[in-house]
Amino acid sequence: MARIRVAASIAATSDYPTQREACRLAEAGGFDAFARPDHLLAEGALAPPGAPILECFTSIAALVPTTTRLRFVQTVACNSFRNPALLAKMVASLDVVSGGRVELGLGAGWLREEYEAYGFEFPPIGVRLGQLQEALQIVKRLWTGEPVDYEGRYYRLRAAVCAPAPVQRPRPPILVGGGGPGVLAIAAAEADIVNVVPVAARAAGGTDAGRFTLEGFRRKIARVRELADAAGRDPATLTFSGMFFVQLAETAAEAQRLRGAVAARYGLAQAEVADFPLFLIGTPAELRERLAERVGRLDLGHVVLQCGTTAVLARVATEVLPALR
After folding, report:
1. How many CA atoms lie within 13 A of 86 on its CB side?
2. How much is the CA Rg of the chain, to the nearest whole Å?
3. CA separation (Å) from 248 to 20, 254, 256, 312?
4. CA-CA-CA-CA torsion sign (181, 186, 188, 194)
5. What is the pTM of this model?
6. Contact by Cβ (8 Å): 23, 70
7. 166 CB-contact burial (10 Å; exposed 0-12 / middle 13-18 / buried 19+)
8. Where are the domains of the chain?
9. CATH architecture observed for domain 5-324
10. Whose CA is closest to 261, among 270, 248, 253?
């Protein structure tokens, strides 16, 4: 089995010193990457209204020089927030500054409250999907370093050049995240890594997320492989990714209480929580077993472990991560 790439993540609303410490622990603990979400507002998805949250790309730029090996990825950037030509330039610049340690995670966007609060138009999903597909095409072409003319339905470029080009060749890896059929079709055609999530999943809850199962995850992966083959791509070249929120328990009784809380929040039976793809809950021994089993069952090559705090991240690095190595 190929080596699994594992990214660490902590609470999105963590302040900069906490994120810097998380990167130190992740690098020392053997994680491959550090993941940052791309939200302009925390409420409705991540935390209570008014909670502070650092912007994704500027925080990554500040974290890069505090590390030497760790890679950085967005889970995922909202395509609507940045013109794709500017986005290509931003990621290329970060790749140069980091010595080739930055990846691009991109999605179609979904949280209406953010769009409205910041004055972005919130178009129908069909438009957002069309914009995402064009954006990925633009980014790839600009990263060649050659002049790009592009005439799409949503974006136009005239002799645009991205110089310096990214350090990584042929280009930085592209992760596309989502769960709906439209996003998965785009991922099948354009992505290197496909991060499968519930449709419009909210980290803080949501009834739709509760219907997400490991079997549903497997079906989405199978569908992406079919779509990649239909698009003329070798499905074996795609890497599949899962994001799991880790809840670490000290005892079996505490683990049972944590599973009960998740069951109540998402409308699940207690027995369903173990196979609920959004969470990994248990003692370190249970987490090792369930993480390894889940990676094998879903044939994942990439995992994002949302550890919540630096203390949990450090424990996961020493007590759980070795199960994947």
Report:
1. 6
2. 19
3. 22, 9, 11, 7
4. negative
5. 0.95
6. yes
7. buried
8. 5-324
9. Alpha-Beta Barrel (3.20)
10. 270
Backbone angles phi, psi at 176, to 5 degrees: -115, 130
Alpha carbon of 290 to those of 53, 97, 139, 263: distances in Å?
31, 37, 37, 17
Backbone dihedral angles phi then psi of residue 243, each to the nearest 5 degrees: -110, 125
Q: Are 306 and 246 in contact (CB under 8 A)?
A: yes
Query: DSSP secondary-structure letter at 177?
Result: E
**Closest-CA residue to 108 (of 38, 43, 50):** 38
Mean pLDDT per 10-residue run, the chain (325 residues)? 88 97 98 97 76 96 98 98 98 98 97 94 97 98 98 98 98 96 97 90 53 93 97 97 98 97 93 92 97 96 98 98 88
Other C-beta atoms lying within 10 Å of the C-beta of residue 232: 7
Reference 174, options 88, 269, 83; nearest CA is 88
How far, in whole angstroms, is CA 210 from its chain's centroid?
Answer: 19
Q: Is the peptide bond before 76 cis (omega within 30 degrees of 0)?
A: yes
Sorted by sequence, the CB contacts under 8 Å of residue 116 that are 6+ apart come out as 122
Residue 134 sits at φ, ψ, to 5 deg, of -65, -40
Name the burial class of residue 234, with classes exposed (0-12), middle (13-18) and buried (19+) by CB atoms within 10 angstroms of its CB: exposed
C-alpha dist (Å) from residue 1 to 104, 241, 324, 325: 25, 15, 10, 10
What six digits make up the tokens of 156?
């136009």
- Residue whose structure tokens are 């060649």: 144
Sheet strands (E) in 5-96 = 5-9, 33-36, 71-74, 77-78
Per DSSP, 274 falls in state: G
The CA distance from 54 to 56, in Å, is 6
Neighbours of 164 (CB within 10 A): 11
How far is it, in rounded angstroms, from Cα 80 to Cα 120? 8
Determine the Cα–Cα distance for residues 189 and 231; give it in Å rounded to an integer: 6
